[in-house]
Amino acid sequence: MGRYYNGDIEGKFMFAVQSSNAADRFGCTGFNNYVTYYFDEEQLPTINKELESMQDAYDKVTEFFKDKDGWTTQQQEEAGISSQEMSDYADYRLGVQIRDCILEQGYCEFEAEL
């Protein structure tokens, strides 16, 4: 079982790491039973700033996952990866999807399961 988001972009929230309202950090607040998001070119500066702030964590966790399909908390701790870095990694991936969607079609709209 997992929590998904779908619409102009789609994916699955990272289990036990990423909240359903993770996209709030990119400059738009969701609403309804599902969290509904609408981004457009106005939010690109905020999105890019947030992505830049998470780049180091993304790079570090990407290297950690380089030869792994999954991980344990012990492996994460041994690699010196904090819970915040893991969360930033997951959010970075979402932010890139949002940014790329806006660049492709001018806006990005999707719903996230709570």
Question: Would you give an account of this structure?
Answer:
- With 114 residues, the protein is α+β, with helices and mostly antiparallel strands.
- 45% of the residues lie in helices and 16% in strands.
- It contains three helices and four strands.
- It has a four-stranded antiparallel beta sheet.
- Helix 1 crosses helix 3.
- The chain is globular.
- The model has no long low-confidence stretch (mean pLDDT 91).
Q: Could you tell me how far the N terminus lies from the C terminus, measured between alpha carbons in angstroms?
A: 13 Å
Strand order of the largest sheet: 2-1-4-3
Bin the helical content.
40-55%
How many individual helices? Answer: 3
**On the 0-100 scale, what is the average pLDDT?**
91
Number of strands: 4
pLDDT < 50 runs, ≥5 residues: none
By helix and strand content, what is the structural category?
Answer: alpha+beta
Which keywords apply here?
alpha+beta, 4 strands, four-stranded antiparallel β-sheet
Outline the secondary-structure elements.
Blueprint: E1 4-7, E2 11-12, E3 35-40, H1 44-65, H2 73-78, H3 83-105, E4 107-112
Antiparallel strand pairs: 1-2, 1-4, 3-4
